[in-house]
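Quick one: examine the sequence and fold tokens given here and explain what the tokens say about the fold. Here goes:
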Amino acid sequence: MALDWWTLALQVFNFLVLVWLLQRFLYRPARRVIEARRAREGAALAEARRLQQEAAAKQAELEARAKALEAERTTLREAMRREIEGERQRILEEARREAAELLAGARRSLEEERRRLLEGLKAEIAGLATDLARRILEELRGPPLDEVFFARLERHLLDMAETERQELLDAGEGEPARVRVVTAAPVGEKRRRDWRHRLERAFGAALALDFAEEPALVAGLELDFGATRLRFSLAGLLDRARRDLMADVETGS
């Protein structure tokens, strides 16, 4: 079969025309559409990435804010807890202080009441004891008991130093010292002379004695030198006993 070059050339020409037509009217528009679509897809993808990045940034910011808020809440809770604890401690301390003051006040009141009652009881006990002793000894008073007290007074004077005895006397130059002798009952003349003699011997000096009576002495005697008074009477003895008794009761309490 013989090759028809004209036919071949025509077909080649037709093919080239077809390719050109396809290139011009089909391929290029399709490629432009595809490229435009790809561009839109790229832009959409870029926008999506941008939005994703913004969302991630927003999320990170929100998380940071949430952490900051949580930290702030924690700080506020801790500060509030410390404030509440401090207030609680202050209230407790104030309550303890007020309770201690009330307790101390109650103790002081009780102690003061106890002291007053004890003082009254001591005074009553001492008074009863001395009154009882006074009533008993009043039955025994008389010259023999007065002589016992005078002997004690005489011994006391003899045991004193000479300077101490002279300090008791207040006499002018060449005059006897005046001494007041106080007794519970009158003293007879004979006993007065005896006491004057023994007192002058104890003092080593002449004395001018003035006798006086004080029934409250119960028994015994007291020498009144003006500035000083030596008490050797039953009243003085009972008074000392009462003070000693009160001191003993107080020590025992």
